[in-house]
Amino acid sequence: MKTAHKYRAYPSKEELEILNRQMFLSKELYNLLLEKSKEYYKNTKKTLTQYRMNVWLTQIKKESPEFNEIYSQALQNVSKRISDAYKSFFRRCKEKKLGKKIQAGFPRHKKFVSSLTYPQSGFKIERKRVELSKIGRINFVNHRDIEDKIKTCSIKKTKSDEWYITFSVEKEDKPFVSNGKEKIGLDLGLTDYATLSNGQKIENPRILNKHIKRLKRKQRKISSKVKGSQNRKKAVKRFARYSEHISRIREDSLHKLSYVLVHSYSFIAHENLQIQNMQKNHRYARSIGDASWGTLISFAHYKAGSAGCETVGVNPRDSTQECSRCHNIKKGSEKLTLTDRLYHCNNCGLTMGRDENSGIVIKKRGLDKSIPTTSGQGESHAFGDIVRPQLQEADVGELGTIRGVSR
Ligand SMILES: [Zn+2]
Description:
Elements: E1 2-10, H1 13-44, H2 50-63, H3 72-97, E2 115-118, E3 123-125, E4 129-132, E5 136-140, E6 149-157, E7 163-170, E8 183-188, E9 194-196, E10 201-202, H4 207-224, H5 230-264, E11 267-271, H6 275-278, H7 282-291, H8 293-307, E12 310-314, E13 342-344, E14 351-353, H9 354-369, H10 393-396, E15 402-403
Zinc ion binds near residues 323, 326 and 347.
């Protein structure tokens, strides 16, 4: 499994100059190659190969020796970015033909490039520094050692001029050993951030709400400044810095929450998310973006294996309308609306909290898809017959609290 480790970096003044220069050159190269590939496609109607790109690259380097300032493999990565852009363009065209409502924009010229990638070699980690070939030895905050095999190294500048080094690593697949704990389903909602099939609720962090006023003020400041002025640039930077600050807090809290979840349960079923569709409903757009379930789910997936937890995504269709006991599905005027907080089944008489009900439905759907495990004692508990782990506020930190709800 591929995963990434990200660290804050502090390039020196000289290194900054080199980095900015190399990113400028990367942008130039990107646009040059894009132009060539467009022409090539127009004349030959052939798809572009990586080989063809590398031939051009050699040519370009001969004509414009300044590109030799960049490490050769980092240069090749620029051409890979173009073939990736084409690949995703063709994939989106195909999806569009199949009826998906998306736009398939042709790869476009770049105004700037904000990262450099060393795909295999050319970098070396020392204790608090990473040596990047043709750039220098850059200081970074090495807060966590990497044990797995490092595949690539990237250095990236954010919009507010902060620098980050990211190492992508290949994690070894270890045999799965279940932690034997309770199995749950996770219902993601707007009133509560999530409701577990055992009735526990995770409160909506609404982190953005706390900061939205300040963020909006910073945004207004931008529009009050003259376009193109230094003051406007400064205001843009302040705004970017603040939004990055907020997303860091959010990411951090999602890391903590996902950690708690995968260590408290042996099995987590969740809805397969289609956030993009949901965000079309504008009224909720901000709180959905803020809740960022997608990130939570992907963090949980990543942490699950080594914590002895299995995560399964299920089709969320009608999960709110289905009875968790008799599987009757409400139709027509019977259907629950957004404001109905209770589920009452007219078929079998079950009455329970709406989110908890759909949490159980999701759990059952997940268990149907689950791979049978040989280890752990957590086989098919009827829910409720084991001691529930009570998650503490302190465990979850910024993300609000998980509170137990008696049934
Ligand atoms: Zn029922």
